[in-house]
Structures are given as structure tokens and as C-alpha cells.
Amino acid sequence: MSLQKAPDGVSVEKQRGTVPNKRTTFMNGEELDIFCNGHEKDCIRECYNILNKYIERILPKGEKESNNSSNDPLDESKDIEAELQDEIAALKSDNKGVKRAERLFQVIESGAKNFLFIRAKDVDPVGLASAIVQDIAETKQMQTRHLIRLVPVEITCKAYIDNIKKACSELLEKHFKDCAKSFSIIYNHRNNNNNSLSRDIVISEIANLVKEYGNDHVVDLTNAQVTIVVEVIKSIALLAVVPKYLFYKKFNLHAIGSNNDTQSSEHNKELMK
Q: Coiled-coil segments, which residues (predicted)?
């Protein structure tokens, strides 16, 4: 279905701000992978809202203090009152949270069905996604309907095995150099026609790279301390080393928040194909 065109040649949807930004080239930036259930516009709004809710929890302490510090004790009550008014206003309007999140995050189309990228600006995607799934697991409160999975990305590269190995080496140097860890490797691919990039090859090559950091790192397929996640979307590979990825059900927000794991798994099985 084609987009309706405005008189100046720009789509009406884009003028209204309902179409995510497109990017033709991918940089080695930090991002989040978003899996939705087909309701893309609603998923984007949910994503902005949940990111805005949790971003305060991972901001550096110094940044929070610099935004809220005051040397005048007489102004303290005024500051508190102003903050309360801001919180009340934010609760009354979801759009305020969305606008704020838009300053830190940028939605990018992936070209794959039910899948979006969120480029994070000066935000640790692993820390942010981990804070979200941990809270949902503890409270067992479903916070999204259309946003299914929220997977952090630390580095991106072209979807060729040599590029993936090079990018993965950078991550291993960061995460595996200092101490022994149990680990697992998860590889998924969507809309990719590179037959040479098979699951067995990718996992084998990454496992060999891990061995270069010593034999103390052991494979654990059920409860690994960290998981090396490789997602290939078309011609792009997205990688991250994520703590407790298996424990938190591969960061499936619906599965984590559901009290009925079997029902949640069946509900999302088709969406995750």
C-alpha cells in the first residue's frame, strides 16, 4: 500500500511525523532493536514512552546533579514545587514523554517486517534495556502491548563473516579480557540472502574468538552470565554482549511480564519467526 502524497510531493504521513526516519548507511553506533506485532506506529509510541520512563535510572549521577543542583537553600522548596508540577504535567500528557525521548532516540526503518532500529544518543543501550527487563521481571507488570522485544546493540557492521569477526573481537576485548564468564551465542537472521552466513559458521567462528581469551570462559546454554547476540537484518549485522539475556527470556517484554510463561510463549511464537 503506497503512502498518500501531499501536493509538494512529500507524504502526508511523513508531514505528520508518523513515519520513522530512514537511514541508508549504518554507523558503528549504539542502538536498540525493536520487535513489534505489526502495529508499527503504536509500537513507536510505546517505545518512546518506556525509554523515557527508564532513562533517568541509568543517567550518570553527575549529570543528574548538574541538572538539579542549587547552592541556595531558600530556592530548594521552589525547586521541589517546580519539579512536582513538571511531574504532574508529564503524567497528564504522554506526548511530553514522547518528545523528550525523541531528543535522545531516533527511530530508523530496517526494511524488515515487524522490526525497527532505535539509535541511542549518548545512552548505554545494554544498561537501559537491562534496567527495563529487570523491573518488568520484578513487578510482573505488562507495560507494552505492541512492543514485543527490546534488544540492545553495541556495534554494527556489514553482514559478512570477516566483518562480524572483527566487530565481535572489539566486543570480546571489552567484555572477556579481565575475568572468566559463562557465555552463550545466539544468532538470528532476517531478510538476508547470504547463504555463506549460516548459523553454524557464525557460532563456530565466534566461539573460536572467545577461546583466544583463555579456557576459563565456559559455554552455558541455559543460564549464561552473558550472551553474545548477533542479529542480521538484510545486509547489516548487529552485535552486543548482554548480561542475563537467557535469564530474562531474550529480553521479550511480554514473556517477562506474563505470569503464564507458556501462554506468553505461544502468543509470541509466530511474531518472533
A: 74-101
